[in-house]
Amino acid sequence: MAQNRTVSKATEDFGGLRMTKQRQAVYDVLSDLGPQHPTAAEVFVTAKERMPSISLATVYNCLETLTGAGAIKQVNIDREASRYCPNLQPHAHFYCTGCNQVFDIGLERGADAESVWSLPAGCRVEEMHVAMRGICGRCPNCSTAAKS
Amino acid sequence: MAQNRTVSKATEDFGGLRMTKQRQAVYDVLSDLGPQHPTAAEVFVTAKERMPSISLATVYNCLETLTGAGAIKQVNIDREASRYCPNLQPHAHFYCTGCNQVFDIGLERGADAESVWSLPAGCRVEEMHVAMRGICGRCPNCSTAAKS
DNA sequence: GTGAATGCAAAACCTTTGCAACTGG
DNA sequence: CCAGTTGCAAAGGTTTTGCATTCAC
User: Fold this and answer.
1) A7 to chain B, closest Cα gap in Å
2) Is the full-model pTM beyond 0.90?
């Protein structure tokens, strides 16, 4: 995503948001690190390599603005530092306690995440966050743990 | 567990946990305030009314211990202060942005929250957290907002 | 040109920790 | 009795804020 740049990904338009160099840089970093679900601090490190003058406060600022504009998503797992994610499809997050990685989990074909919940009439859901913890079973660490 | 107790709720047994007055008090407060999903600070206020010597650190301590013992659940919504919940049934949380209240949402009869997600083979889910934001439509505030 | 965004440092917020005193089993 | 728990205050990590400077439109 954003990787297969047939054209350039530079200067995207996020609904009339003033596109500063910093916002663009933060968005680009997040596109590049996407699957890693970086924290603000991690985005800051990579952004600073590309734009040494950028500050941590600005990274927080940009991440908040981009989240508000719907360009990225904020991922909160327990009380750990927020992570950020450029994947806009509806998806859940799986946090592996074996390897400390976060994976995106898609919906089953045709499934609807809301419909399993018994929502009272009149109640309108605007946002839904689904997070799971467990063992991913992919890495050596985890494939051992998964056997038990 | 500990829920279907026809008799008094006093002095419950949480799997060999040393039951101090403070732990009991914190658990009792949470049972009483249950549906309000209080924060640690809110539990502290009520606990202090009943036991003036209790400290905030102890409330945090007890909440963590009780969570670890599976007697209560921690509820994290965005980056706000953690809330706590004595409902041990599988359920989601609905945070109403109109009235700032948190509601428990049960599963539809026979439904399974995990099965809508396309989990990779070998991956084992140990915990799942589902949170929604929106308008509950119950309070005056919200019933107006819900019409729009 | 001008309102909005940046960078810096300091503050805010929630939560955890160190340690001496205490207590439940 | 004594490991585990408490209460207090101080520290911790993450995020936000105030303000002068700079920038995108």
Assistant:
1) 32
2) no
